[in-house]
Amino acid sequence: MKRTLSITLSIISGLLLAAAWPAMLPSLLTVLIFFAFIPLLIVADALQKRNHFFFHAFITLLIWNAATTWWIWNSTDVGSIAAIIANALLMCIPWWGYFIFKNTFGKKIGYVSLISFWMLFEYIHLNWQLSWPWLTLGNVFASSPHHIQWYEYTGVGGGTLWILLVNILVFENIGEKKKSLTKKIITALVLITPMFISFFIETSIHASTKKTNTDVVIVQPNIDPYQKFNAQSISEQIQLLISLSEKNIDSSTQLVMWPETAMAANVSIDQVTRSFIYQPVFDFINRHPHIVLLSGIETNKNYGTEKATPTAQHYTDGTYHDDYNAAVIIQSNQPLQYYFKSKLVPGVESLPSFLNFMAPVFEKFGGTTGGYAKDTAAVAFKSDGNPYITAPIICYESIYGEYITEYVKKGANILTIITNDGWWGNTPGHKQHLQYARLRAIETRRYVARSANTGISAVIDEKGNILQTQAWDTAAVIKYNIPVLTEQTFYVQHGDYLFKLFSFVAFILILWNLFLVIKKKTLK
Questions:
Q1: Are 260 and 423 spatial neighbours (Cβ–Cβ below 8 Å)?
Q2: Which of 3-17, 367-381, 408-422 is predicted least confidently?
Q3: Do the Cβ atoms of 234 and 297 come closer than 8 Å?
Q4: Are residue 39 and residue 177 in the same domain, yes or no?
Q5: What's the structural domain count of the chain?
Q6: pLDDT at position 229, please?
Q7: Is the per-residue pLDDT at 369 higher than 90?
Q8: What is the pLDDT of residues 433-454, one digit of tens each?
């Protein structure tokens, strides 16, 4: 194969992946995901050298990453370039493994290795300290929930497996010199059957619903994220949030939601109830004792001159603090309940432990040695006399399917996402983030109430349908009667078992190959 053709095919593969992604182009193009890897598979069959194929895979995956996550640039320029390149390189590893195993053991083992190595990569990317699962393949169907109602059994791992299988089967049909009817039928069944299953699940859903006569009020204040931490404007922001809330609550309102870091003064956690700047919030709650307020809050713990935890930061006054991006439940005459964001954005909210050697450098520049401190597990907020047991999901956490199931296992009957997507401006970023929330609704069969600082706030039902939204860059409120759902899905009970299963297969393949390499060397 000529170099120009192989590079062209690699580019086409990257463009197909990008075109299929939600919030980029109309969701009708999602079907392209089932053919997006075929040009790269053709290249893999034509090339002989590993480093040549690695280069071509990198072209494909760099285009995909750049075209779908370029919006990171709005919050960090150099960081976005580094993240896109690094993620593309990491994605090359399972393809490189596929190329090696295909050429060593043949196509069948090669295909098994491709599926297993890719799912191992996605599973690692969901769980390690530099986690960035934004482009998990199964996320691509976020804007097509009618096709993936079966995610309540598999999570996004089932979508990843489906995509890889169809790409491989279609490629095999193209490459067959003698066209096999059996292969065509199998390919068609693998492609179509999940859609039919989804249709039957969707039409037969009768969730265990406890009907309520209560409303949730979701506030979208539309505050510039680059200005909201200005101390001079925090009081004005609080007044705006209270004003928007009071204009919409009534006797049926049980839950009011404010977005991530809505309470942005970073008052020490033991001073929040006594803070002058937050007194209007508590006055608001006391005027309406029947409601519960779920809000984002910036807060900290002061340890004095002792560095009490690995994440404690050294302040200019000589003291150490743990900072938290947190959620708080405020109810009249009740103690505050806190949850500290656990899934932190790498490089922005946390410094991975293997980069701790750079901590002194970050400290000298007024940066962070460990980023935000965090909770070690999900927390469900339960309030006396309130029907809603909320899952305080903070921004980035909403892309972690298995983690969200932990809220539900602890009793959460509504997924409450608070976020501040304005860092990225009016780009596909905040649109993709909204779409991913639909996946969590399907996986857990819970309604999603989403309060976004600048948009897009929304209510999503348990089938992943967006029932109501407010426009981007608008100060607005959603008031909605959200039912309570209590049943636990198979996915809630078992989590990412598909990722774990194929990760095990990947390790067996790697050990098998290692054994054969060692055996070959010892026989020489």
A1: no
A2: 367-381
A3: no
A4: yes
A5: 2
A6: 75
A7: no
A8: 999 999 999 999 999 999 999 9
508: helix, strand or coil: helix
Does the N-terminal peptide bond of residue 456 adopt cis geometry, omega within 30 degrees of 0? yes
- Residues 277, 234 contacting (CB under 8 angstroms): yes
Q: How far apart are CA 226 and CA 245, in angstroms?
A: 23
Token look-up 């990491």 returns 90
CA distances, 362 to each of 318, 344, 356 (Å): 16, 18, 10
Do 168 and 233 lie in a common domain? no
Residue found under tokens 């598909």: 498
Name the helix (H) or strand (E) containing 477.
Answer: strand 476-480
Residues 171 and 252 in one domain: no
Say if 381 falls within a structural domain: yes
Q: Is the same domain home to 300 and 172? A: no
- Contact by Cβ (8 Å): 478, 470: yes
Q: Say if residue 271 is in the same domain as residue 382.
A: yes
Tokens of 240: 């705006």
Taking the C-alpha atoms of residue 508 and residue 504, their distance in angstroms, rounded to an integer, is: 6
Q: Which residue has the tokens 């298995």?
A: 402
Domain containing residue 336: CATH number: 3.60.110.10
Tokens 């053991």, located at residue: 105
Beta partners for residue 170, in sequence order? none
Distance of CA 230 to the CA centre of its chain: 28
Cα(398)–Cα(482) distance, integer angstroms: 19
Is 509 found in the same domain as 466?
no
Residue 491 within any structural domain of the chain = no
Amino acid identity for residue 133 in this structure: P
CA 293 to each of CA 172, 213, 218, 264, 323: distance values in angstroms, whole numbers, following the listed order: 56, 18, 10, 15, 22
231 and 362, same domain (yes or no): yes
Nearest Cα neighbor of 260 from 309, 302, 218 is 218
Separation between Cα atoms, residue 231 and residue 276, nearest integer Å:
13
**DSSP secondary structure string for all residues of 321-374:** EEEEEEEEEEETTS--EEEE--SPPBTTTB--GGGGGGHHHHHHTT--SS-S--
Residue 152 belongs to a domain: yes
Spatial CB neighbours of 279, under 8 Å, sequence gap ≥ 6: none
SS3 for 266? strand
Segment 74-102, tens digit of pLDDT: 877 788 899 999 999 999 999 999 999 99
Is the entire prediction scored with pTM above 0.70? yes
Give the burial string for 322-358 (b: 16+ CB within 10 Å, else e).
bbbbbbbbbbeeeeebbbbbbbbbbbbbbbeeeeeee
Reported as a single tens digit per residue, the pLDDT across 322-340 is: 999 999 999 999 999 999 9
The answer on 217 and 201 residing in a single domain is: no
Residue-range definition of the domain harbouring residue 342: 210-486
* Helices (H) then strands (E): counts for the chain: 15, 15
Residue 265, both tokens: 């003064």
